[in-house]
Amino acid sequence: MWLMLNGERREVADGVSLAQLIDTLGLAAERIAIELNQGVVRRAEWAATELKESDRIEIVHFVGGGAKNVASF
Amino acid sequence: MSTVVQTKSDRFEIGGRPFNSRLIIGTGKYRSQEEMKAAHRASGAEMVTVAVRRVPLDRSSESFLDHLDPALQLLPNTAGCYSAEEAIRTARLAREALQTDLIKLEVIGDQTTLFPYNEQTLEAARVLVKEGFVVLPYFTDDLIMAKKLLDSGCQAVMPLAAPIGSGLGVQNPANLRIMREQLPDATIIVDAGVGTASDAAIAMELGADAVLMNTAIAEARDPAKMAQAMKLAIEAGRLAYLAGRMSKRLYASASSPLPGVVR
Q1: Contacts of B39 (CB under 8 A, 6+ apart)
Q2: Distance of CA B42 to the CA centre of its chain
Q3: pLDDT tens column, B134-152
Q4: Cα dihedral B135, B36, B97, B45 sign
Q5: Relative to the CA of B155, which of B60, B142, B193, B252 has its CA 20 to 30 Å away?
Q6: Touching check for A66 and chain B: CB below 8 Å?
Q7: Is B104 a catalytic residue?
Q8: Do A65 and B57 touch (CB under 8 A)?
Q9: Chain A residue with minimal CA distance to B106?
Q10: A8, A40, A61 ranked by CB distance to B55: nearest
Q11: Distance CA B32, CA B37 (A)
């Protein structure tokens, strides 16, 4: 099934959970946050959150900077 | 380590946590992480701002936060947001990731000037305060907007000195003085536009409780040196403010007695 992930369309396995998706992407869970269809999903709920086709997911982390000058070394 | 002893009457706190340093610094625009770390150390700052961005999925990236001194209080910001909705979403994500209620609220109205979109800032502030955030809003140095932000529950207000990254220093000292006088109990943090040490000292002399800056340090030729200068300037400015300056006069007032001069 397809999802929107950080603004881009991606194919993932059907019925995958958020936790599984993070794992597949190889992301460390610390100090990232996830938004699913404009709502924040708490880490404790990632495993229990099953994704559906056309879900819009935003995965964010922290970088240096302010309004114009975003940095990540 | 700040040399200013924090007396009971000169306490600076945000979200219930006291800070010895009245300098808050940013993490952007540094030429290297070494320069950033050296500047942070030299500044004596205890709180730094960080921005929230999408994780790049096409490559592995190390955590920026790992480059920061773990003793620093992180202050996430909503940099890059142009609407209340974006800022609210960003704040919620930041809180989830960092497990902090602190948020520096920035809603920008214009890409060239990066001036704040005050209306949307107020709207976002109202929502975030209700959700339990400790909201520190960036806005133009407008007394009426300051009152609205404080009435909506913001714990401090952060008027700009001049446009972000402009280095122009306090452009409207009268406004800041008025704000300080009219809101004697408010925590006022001058944020944006500071360029050099004297700018920071002036902001503190006008009665600001703290100063937030990024570019002034990051774009100095020697950021660590400038960070140290800022630390000293903010201490000096605060002392001068507490000391109560003399009044300005139009004409001279002699320092020595007139009679008894040998003629």
Answers
A1: B25, B30, B217, B218, B223, B224, B226, B227
A2: 17
A3: 999 999 999 999 999 999 9
A4: negative
A5: B193
A6: yes
A7: yes
A8: no
A9: A67
A10: A61
A11: 9
Axis-axis angle for helices B84-98, B118-130 (nearest 10): 40
H/E stretch holding B218 reads: helix B215-218
ipTM value for the complex: 0.88
From B8, B104, B231, B248, active-site residue: B104
CATH of domain A2-60: 3.10.20.30
Buried-state track B235-263, b at ≥16 Cβ within 10 A, e below 16: bbbbeebeeeeeeeeeeeeeeeeeeeeee
For B54, the closest chain A residue by CA position comes to: A60
Nearest CA in chain B to A10: B57
Give the mean pLDDT of chain B. 94
Chain B interface, Cβ < 8 Å to A = 26-30, 32-33, 36, 49-55, 57, 60-61, 63-65, 67, 74, 76-77, 79-80, 89-90, 92-98, 106, 108, 114, 164-165, 214-215
Confidence class of residue B61 from pLDDT cuts 50, 70 and 90? confident
Of B50, B95, B214, the CB nearest to A62: B50
Domain spans in chain A, listed from the N-terminal domain onward: 2-60
CATH of domain B21-243: 3.20.20.70
Q: What is the rounded CA–CA span in Å between residue B225 and residue B236?
A: 16
Residues 6+ apart with CB under 8 A from A63: A70, A71, A72, B27, B50, B51, B52, B53, B64
Spatial distance between the Cα atoms of B189 and B14, rounded to a whole number of angstroms? 11
* Cβ-based contacts of B215 with chain A (< 8 Å): 69
- Closest partner residue to A71 among B29, B74, B94, by Cβ? B29
Which residues on A lie below 8 Å from B121 (Cβ)? none
Q: How far is A6 from chain B (nearest CA, A)?
A: 6
Q: How far is CA B208 from CA B30, B36, B43, B120, in A?
A: 26, 25, 18, 24
